[in-house]
């Protein structure tokens, strides 16, 4: 048979998949490897969705999403992020940020274009750039800098083929919140070099003791920035698949063209749930954020105590401790931790080479689970130190 | 609410050492704060939330709306205090609306609760009327859902 799409075939399988398979076979496993909230979607949101099903909100919606939802999104961007979008032409409701990211990349990238991604990063970024026909160019961030982006390194990675920068703050897997001055500097570079900026802000509500900086709200940013966000993390709505993209009309209209031919619209019931979440869900998010914050402090100090130096990140629900004292590679560490004491974490190397030397631990787990995981990890590191 | 109280309200048996570790505080400070709240009556008591139905126990609970003609000077307080002191009474609150006091009474049988209402509650001076609602089924008690909890359906490892 004739070859399938070679670019897709050449994308390596996700390293996270292997750990899923390893962990899935074990019933006693305690997982700190889950990239989604342990909370169930707040009942008021679920209840709104049940009501929507009962009342037959089961059809297609407008391609860009239910008008009321787009207005709520625009209002939210204005109030929280300080950036205005026309809900008629500049807001698209998508099947999660995953789809929104795909739309953004396909609207921006032409064959051979380079897109700068800051590693360690979410596992989809590189492959999505490739699928869109572009070439991801990784710029590393380092643990000793708190995984803060170096604008200088970003600038030196730019070539005549560079078309866009993809930023995610707060970030998965590090939990790092990029300081406002770093984001401003990156935006100045984007303006100087005429780059688009795609900003994945899915963790924007999960920040602790600092303010979220919306990249699209920076001076001069709006015209070249695609803002991606959604309700998966802030409202514990991962399975609903509802996110959104906001961009100036020339970009949004291209994205909408792709969306209408591929996805048609985001799930209607999920959009109805999202309306309730955006309208009345703030307190629910605040409650979850308060719980995450306590766990974050606990896990960071408990892992440090257990011999895995773990600075306190300012966002998301991950800590990214160093495993260098153990002398193991991150995939070795994660595999042995799973096999020997039954705790699942994700090796940092799956998020890019600069994630090596770290593992991602999610604190989206109730306290008793975290405590049990910590006691097992402590046991494991002690044994290692004894030369086990 | 203080984080220590949040933890105790979820699980009153969490030991101070564990609270201290979770919150990154010295254990002595946690013990001190709890002791102070106990002294000040902020923490009234530690008790178990029991689901009598699962125990197969027949308990009868009634919600009684009580109409009261208030007294000059003390309003509803004297009558409410008299009702509250009966050991059968679980709670007494003054409410707005068609009635004045909402009283929750618990007893071994419908007969025992009815007897309490007709012999103790209704004849009280200044009580002008009672309406008794017997509990049929309890779904949530003091913030505790008595239904099946949501189970964690997440995959073991996700990006």
Through-space gap between termini of chain A? 51 Å
Q: What does the oligomeric state look like here?
A: heterodimer
Shape of chain B: extended
**Shape, per Cα inertia axes of chain A:** globular
Classify the beta-strand content of chain A into a percent band: 5-15%
Calculate the terminal CA-CA distance of chain B, rounded to whole Å. Answer: 34 Å
Number of helices of chain A: 13
Total helical elements of chain B: 6
Q: Structural class from helices and strands of chain B?
A: alpha+beta
Instruction: Provide the structure class of chain A.
Output: alpha/beta
Report helical residue fraction of chain A. Answer: 40-55%
- Give the largest chain-chain interface (CB within 8 Å): A-B, 27 and 14 residues
Low-confidence stretches of chain B: none
Strand order of the largest sheet of chain B: 2-3-1-4
Mean pLDDT of chain B: 92
Could you describe the 3D structure shown?
The complex is a heterodimer of chains A (388) and B (159). Chain A has helices at 6-9, 15-24, 43-54, 67-81, 96-108, 125-131, 151-156, 180-192, 249-262, 268-280, 282-305, 330-341, 367-385, and strands at residues 30-31, 91-94, 114-119, 135-140, 162-168, 196-200, 225-230, 243-246, 318-319, 343-344, 346-347, 359-362. Chain A has 388 residues and is of the alpha/beta class. In chain A, the strands form three sheets. In chain A, strands 2-8-7-6-5-3-4 form a seven-stranded mixed sheet, sandwiched between helices. Chain A has a three-stranded antiparallel sheet with strand order 9-12-11. A two-stranded parallel sheet of chain A has the order 1-10. In chain A, helix 4 (67-81) runs parallel beside helix 10 and helix 5 packs across helix 9 (249-262). Chain A is globular, with a radius of gyration of 21 Å. The longest helix of chain B has 14 residues, at 27-40. In chain B, strand 5 (140-141) and strand 6 (144-145) form a beta hairpin. Chain B is α+β, with helices and mostly antiparallel strands and 159 residues long. In chain B, the strands form two sheets. In chain B, strands 2-3-1-4 form a four-stranded antiparallel sheet. In chain B, strands 5-6 form a two-stranded antiparallel sheet. Chain B is built from six helices and six strands; from the N terminus they run ααααβαββαβββ. Chains A and B meet through helix 2 and helix 11 of A and helix 2 of B.
């Amino acid at each position: 048979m004739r070859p399938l799409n070679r670019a897709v075939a050449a994308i390596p399988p996700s390293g996270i998949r292997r750990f899923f398979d390893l962990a899935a076979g074990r019933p006693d496993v305690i997982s700190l490897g889950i990239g989604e909230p342990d909370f169930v979607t707040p009942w008021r949101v679920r209840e709104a969705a049940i009501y929507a099903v009962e009342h037959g909100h089961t059809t297609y919606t407008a391609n860009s999403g239910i008008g009321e939802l787009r207005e709520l999104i625009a209002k939210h961007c204005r109030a929280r992020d300080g950036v205005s979008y026309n809900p008629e032409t500049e807001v698209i409701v998508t099947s999660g940020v995953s789809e929104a990211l795909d739309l953004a990349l396909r609207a921006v990238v032409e064959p051979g274009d380079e897109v700068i991604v800051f590693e360690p990063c979410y596992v989809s970024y590189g492959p999505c750039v490739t699928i869109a026909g572009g070439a991801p160019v990784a710029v590393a961030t380092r643990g000793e800098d708190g995984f803060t982006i170096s604008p200088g390194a970003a600038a030196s990675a730019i070539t005549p083929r560079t078309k866009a920068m993809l930023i995610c703050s707060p970030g998965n897997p590090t939990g790092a919140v990029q300081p406002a001055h770093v984001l401003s500097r990156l935006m100045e570079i984007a303006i100087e070099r005429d780059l688009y900026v795609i900003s994945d802000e899915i963790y924007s509500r999960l920040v602790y003791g600092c303010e979220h900086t919306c990249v699209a709200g920076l001076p001069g940013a709006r015209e070249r920035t695609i803002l991606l966000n959604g309700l998966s993390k802030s409202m514990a709505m991962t399975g609903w698949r509802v996110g959104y993209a906001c961009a100036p009309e020339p970009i949004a209209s291209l994205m909408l063209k792709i969306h209408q031919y591929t996805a048609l619209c985001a799930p209607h019931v999920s959009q109805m749930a999202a309306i309730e979440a955006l309208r009345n869900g703030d307190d629910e998010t605040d409650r979850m954020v308060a719980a995450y914050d306590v766990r974050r402090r606990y896990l960071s100090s408990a892992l440090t105590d257990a011999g895995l130096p773990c600075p306190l990140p300012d966002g998301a629900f991950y800590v990214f401790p160093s495993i260098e004292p153990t002398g193991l590679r991150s995939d070795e560490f994660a595999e042995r931790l799973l096999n020997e004491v039954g705790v699942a974490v994700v090796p940092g190397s799956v998020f890019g080479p600069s994630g090596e030397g770290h593992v991602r631990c999610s604190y989206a787990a109730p306290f008793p689970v975290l405590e049990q995981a910590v006691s097992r990890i402590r046991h494991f590191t002690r044994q290692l130190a004894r030369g086990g | 609410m203080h984080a220590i109280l949040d933890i105790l309200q979820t699980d009153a048996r969490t030991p101070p050492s564990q609270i201290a570790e979770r919150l990154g505080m010295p254990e002595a400070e946690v013990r001190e704060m709890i002791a102070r709240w106990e002294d000040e009556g902020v923490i009234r008591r530690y008790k178990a939330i029991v689901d009598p139905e699962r125990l197969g126990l027949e308990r009868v609970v009634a919600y009684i709306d009580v109409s009261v003609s208030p007294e000059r000077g003390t309003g509803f307080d004297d009558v409410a205090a008299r009702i509250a002191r009966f050991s059968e009474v679980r709670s007494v609150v003054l409410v707005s609306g068609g009635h004045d006091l909402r009283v929750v009474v618990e007893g071994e049988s419908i007969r025992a609760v009815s007897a309490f209402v007709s012999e103790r509650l209704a004849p009280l001076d200044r009580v002008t009327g009672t309406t008794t609602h017997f509990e049929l089924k309890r779904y949530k008690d003091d913030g505790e859902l008595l239904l099946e909890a949501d189970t964690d359906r997440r995959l073991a490892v996700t990006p």
